[in-house]
């Protein structure tokens, strides 16, 4: 059996081929370069994800012994603030209005960037609790270690405000009763 004779391309196809052919090698080289860059970036992203995962796994190991150490120090000091107290807890989030502080805490932290400071959740506390104090909070079966970096007009007595990243999370938290104690 003989193979069919090749078809002769039309004039338009020939013209198109002549126009495309000179660029084909350049496009192929560009494609290979972009593929190489993309592969490199994907590798960088994976390395960063691995580092983040490792740091997240390290944090509880580092933080837990410090917490235990701080708890032992607090219990040994026999300070009246070392005991659990009842409290009311609300949530706030970065927003561009005066009531929310415009996303900047009283200590100058930008809540748009992070709701954490030195590994602790940013909280607003009454003036009786000094700035940079570490407070352990138990609400709805969860324990949160927070750092006092903010104040608020309605934050008095045993009322605290926990920073959340967005309005939806803050609204879901709502207003809750719980307990707190000063760790450091």
UniProtKB/TrEMBL annotation:
Keyword RNA-binding carried by entry: no
Keyword Signal: yes
Chain segments annotated as transmembrane: none
Residues of the 3D domain: 121-179
Keywords from the named record: Coiled coil, Signal
Coiled coil: 31-58
InterPro entries, A to Z: 3D_dom, Resuscitation_pf_RpfB
Name of this chain's protein: SPBc2 prophage-derived protein yorM
Organism of derivation: Listeria floridensis FSL S10-1187
